[in-house]
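Quick one: structure tokens for this chain, please?
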Amino acid sequence: MRRLRPSLDWLLVLVPVSIVLELAGGNELLIFLTSAGAILPLAGLIGRATEQLALHTGPRIGGLVNATFGNVTELVIAFFLILEDKTEIVKASLTGSILGNLLLVLGLSFLAGGLKHEEQTYNARSASIHATSLVLAVTALLMPALFALSQVGESAQQIILEREVVSATVSAVLIALYVAALVFTLVTHEHLFRTPSAEEHPSWSR
């Protein structure tokens, strides 16, 4: 008889449980715990799905899909928090996500790769594009704060209004830069970023 192995997917049972508790007006702490537990396997499924899609479409498209949909959970949570006007929690979540991806995920990737491979190689052009985009993004994130610190002698309402204008402008510029980088790497200069196909074969069908 085949033995059942513990799996994170078992936590999927918490998805309907959390929904029922919310609709029934159950205990808020219990709703939070069941919802947090339900997010874990859902995030894992999204990660596995993007990995399999990357194996079907190639590393460039797969990397784009992974970067886009890998943060779906955070985007959904941020969306509902903004609707509840809890922007401070959204800011803290974004800060934690940025630091986690820049430091924890990148550091663990280097460590795991170094333990398995004696020498790691990267596409220099791709790395330079991503590094430049990262520097521009960090600079843009600092702009609203620097603008707020530089305002002296203006009314609080005027400062808030001008800060919102600066934030919206910076957001539009970042979106435009992201789209431009995608066009550059995937359309106009696609040949510069080609990498050898992975030896791993997808386990999920199309």
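The helical segments are 14-23, 28-57, 59-69, 72-83, 87-116, 124-150, 156-188.
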